[in-house]
């Protein structure tokens, strides 16, 4: 359903793997009857043109139905828990010039990547909470 990596790609303003996330949320939030119908039709062949061309912006995520928002919220929490530290710890390290300079160049780059990832995930949490 979500491809080989099993992950969704989020940017600052929208979901970059929007088709995968949209389909996954639709399927996971279906009733048993809706899922049977989905399987029988081999997916949605009659998607509206508007739905095909829409982007899954963060604003659109905030308008998802409650079950889908809860699923997304819980998934983001699980992802955040997989990190060894929280957003505040990363921010504190970035703000502590002495500690930051003790890190190798590679550790500094990894810190910036983790911090950016966590900021995006926290932004998503706020939108779907």
Automatic annotation (TrEMBL):
Gene Ontology CC: one annotated term: nucleus
User: Keyword GTP-binding on this protein?
Assistant: no
Where does it live in the cell?
Nucleus
Q: Name one GO biological process term.
A: methylation
Q: Which domain of life is it from?
A: Eukaryota
Keyword DNA damage listed? The answer is no
Q: Which InterPro entries match?
A: Rubisco_LSMT_subst-bd (IPR015353), Rubisco_LSMT_subst-bd_sf (IPR036464)
One example GO MF annotation: methyltransferase activity
- Name assigned to this protein: N-lysine methyltransferase SETD6
What's the gene? Answer: Setd6
């Amino acid at each position: 359903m979500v491809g080989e990596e099993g992950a969704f790609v989020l940017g600052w303003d929208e979901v970059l793997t929007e088709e995968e996330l949209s389909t996954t949320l639709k399927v996971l939030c279906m009733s048993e009857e809706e899922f049977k119908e989905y399987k029988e039709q081999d997916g949605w062949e009659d998607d509206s043109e508007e739905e095909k061309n829409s982007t899954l912006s963060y604003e659109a995520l905030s308008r998802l139905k409650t079950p889908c928002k809860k699923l997304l919220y819980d998934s983001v929490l699980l992802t955040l828990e997989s990190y060894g530290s929280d957003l505040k710890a990363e921010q504190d390290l970035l703000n502590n010039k002495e500690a930051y300079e003790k890190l190798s160049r590679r550790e500094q780059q990894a810190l910036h990547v983790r911090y950016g990832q966590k900021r995006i995930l926290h932004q998503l949490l706020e939108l779907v909470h």
